[in-house]
Amino acid sequence: MRRRRVGLLLLLLLAGFSAVMRVQRPSSLREGGEACDREGAVAAKEELQAFGEREVERESEGRVWRPWGVSGDRDCARHETRFGRALPRVLLLSFPCSGNTWLRYLLEGASGLFTASEFADEELLRAGFLGEGEDPGSERTLVQKSHGSVDKSRRDLAGRHEAVGPSTPAVLLLRDPRRAIISFWKLLSRPGDGRHTAQLSPQDFQNNAFRGHVERMTSQWEELATDRLLWNSAPLHVVHYERLLADPIGHLRRILHFLGVPVDEARLRCLATHLEGSFKRSGNEDFDPYTEEEKRRLSLAVLRVQRLLRLMDYPDPPLYEWQDALP
């Protein structure tokens, strides 16, 4: 008798739960009980805007840079990059050495507006990134480079949440961590001028310091992505470095749309013929210094981030070339 009462109680609870689910059905589900329209959700993510398209005011005096001034291309040499006025705060967020500097070059060339950084890199300043020493909150720059909580002193949950700044719109740039972690190690190993273009020998990766670097950075690459995806309450645009590399102009159009900056077709034509710019990092990206255990941990971190992107209805992330070899 008691078993029958328990069974009836469970049936009633399940029936009530089903009724609640039917009443509170998300609006993204179609009438008639069809599954969520994933294509529509993805399109909405791609068309998301942080700001409506607006007139962008630039300073008429002060520092100026001509990104293609010595290119020999007369039509492109006239284009200038300047500081703006009353620009909203937008983070350009990435794990270190994920293509942030190259994307800044592309954005400055496309918009004619300087970008800023949380850091002050003299080498970048000399290379034409004149917003490098600018206060990120000055409202004079288009986006502001940040690495979030990576290598910050506070690694607890509260410190990571504070580093996110969830109410600030952001562009999140993601790159294959196997390559980014190698590039970051090279950058840390060669302090001072020239560190962006320095090469390392295989022996520079065969030590306990590099092993500890891989362990820490694998976790921090995953945390940077997941913290931003889960906590950001302001609009967020996700860019994958590998797809940016394959179609830079197409992705620039989407980013400018997200930022509400009108597209200047003449500038984009010039940028299409000067994609690399005057600053390019070279390195050991094709070198494989990882142990089998490190590869396994990296693979799991990547799979978790890719799964989260799909669950949140972002366009399918790229599969890195090494993922084809996964068991």
Main attributes?
disordered N terminus; mainly alpha; 12 helices; 327 residues; 6% strand; 44% helix; 5 strands; five-stranded parallel sheet
In words, what does this structure look like?
The structure is a single chain. The chain is mainly alpha-helical. 44% of the residues lie in helices and 6% in strands. The protein is built from twelve helices and five strands. The protein has a five-stranded parallel β-sheet, sandwiched between helices. Helix 5 (122-126) links the parallel strand 2 (116-117) and strand 3. Helix 4 crosses helix 11 (265-272) and helix 8 (208-231) runs parallel beside helix 12 (292-311). The protein starts with a helix and ends in a 16-residue tail after the last helix. 33% of the residues are buried.
Short précis:
This protein has 327 residues and is mainly alpha-helical.
> Strand portion, in percent?
5-15%
- Strand order within the widest sheet? 2-3-1-4-5
Spans of 5+ residues with little confidence (pLDDT < 50)? Answer: 1-42
How would you state the average pLDDT, rounded? 83
Q: Please, how many helices? A: 12
- Structural class by helix and strand composition: mainly alpha
Radius of gyration: 23 Å
Q: Give the biggest beta sheet.
A: 5 strands, parallel
Q: How many β-strand runs?
A: 5
Query: Termini, distance in Å?
Result: 52 Å
Q: In percent, how helical is the residue content? A: 40-55%
- SSE pattern: HHHEHEHEHEHHEHHHH
Shape: globular
